[in-house]
């Protein structure tokens, strides 16, 4: 990008508009130090960013954090996110969590809003 006649070369600036500032800063912090601050607060957004920029170690770190955060209220949402971002560890953990708490979760609107594919995967895990 900086070795061609692109706009970024001429202006000496790169605009990344679809990543929040704090998420971008933590992505850079991870690239340079292997550490992330406030992972508990930004794990979902950072997972998507790590997936987009092919940062597999950061992605795994976010998956681990989100596995810790699984609860009745967010398990369907996290399952959808994991499926969308091909985060298999997180997806499997979310499915196991839902199966383990099926009596509470299956009647929630968040669960009923899941795609047929994901509901099928949860049902398959139940048998």
Automatic annotation (TrEMBL):
Residues 1-40 form the BTB domain. Transmembrane segments: none annotated. CDD domains: BACK. This is BTB domain-containing protein. InterPro entries: BTB/POZ_dom (IPR000210), SKP1/BTB/POZ_sf (IPR011333). It holds the Pfam family BTB. The lineage of its organism: Eukaryota, Metazoa, Ecdysozoa, Arthropoda, Hexapoda.
């Amino acid at each position: 990008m900086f070795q061609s006649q692109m706009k970024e070369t001429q202006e000496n600036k790169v605009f990344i508009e679809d990543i929040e500032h704090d998420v971008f800063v933590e992505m850079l912090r991870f690239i340079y130090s292997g550490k992330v601050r406030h992972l508990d607060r930004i794990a979902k957004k950072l997972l998507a960013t790590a997936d987009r920029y092919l940062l597999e170690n950061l992605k795994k770190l976010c998956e681990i954090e989100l596995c810790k955060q699984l609860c009745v209220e967010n398990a369907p949402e996290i399952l959808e996110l994991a499926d969308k971002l091909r985060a298999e560890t997180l997806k499997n953990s979310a499915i196991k969590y839902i199966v383990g708490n099926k009596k509470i979760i299956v009647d929630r609107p968040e669960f009923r809003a899941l795609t047929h594919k994901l509901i099928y995967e949860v049902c398959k895990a139940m048998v």
